[in-house]
Amino acid sequence: MSSAPEWEDPRKVLARHGLAPKKAFSQNFLVSRHVVDGIVRAIAPRDGERVIELGPGLGTLTGALLGAGARVVAIEKDREMIAVLRAELGSNERFEVIEGDAAAVDLATLAGGERIALAGNLPYAITGGIVRNLCEHAASLSRAVIMVQKEVRDRLIAKPDTNDYGALTVFVQARFDVKPVLKVPAGSFHPPPKVESAVVMLVPRDVPRAEETDAFRTVVRAAFQARRKTLRNALGQAVGVERAERALAAAGIDPKRRGETLSIEELAKVGEAIEAP
Question: Could you tell me which of 47, 63, 174, 199 has the fewest CB atoms within 10 Å of its CB?
Answer without folding.
Answer: 47
